[in-house]
Amino acid sequence: MKISYCKGYVAPLPEGHIFPMKKFSGLYDHLTQNEGFKPSQFIEPCMADMAALCTVHSPEYSNKVWNGTLNRKEERRMGLPWSKKLAVRSRLAVQGTVNAALMALQDGAAGNLAGGTHHAMPGHGEGFCVFNDVAIAIRVLRQSKWVRRVLVIDCDVHQGNGTAEIFREEADVFTFSIHGEKNYPFVKPPSTLDVALPDKTGDKAYIRHLGDSLDQIFNSFKPDLVFYLGGIDPLETDHFGRLSLSLKGLEERERLVIETVVQKDIPVVLLLSGGYAPTLRKTVEAHSIMYRVARDITAPYFS
Question: Which family does the record claim for this protein (predicted)?
Answer without folding.
Answer: Belongs to the histone deacetylase family.
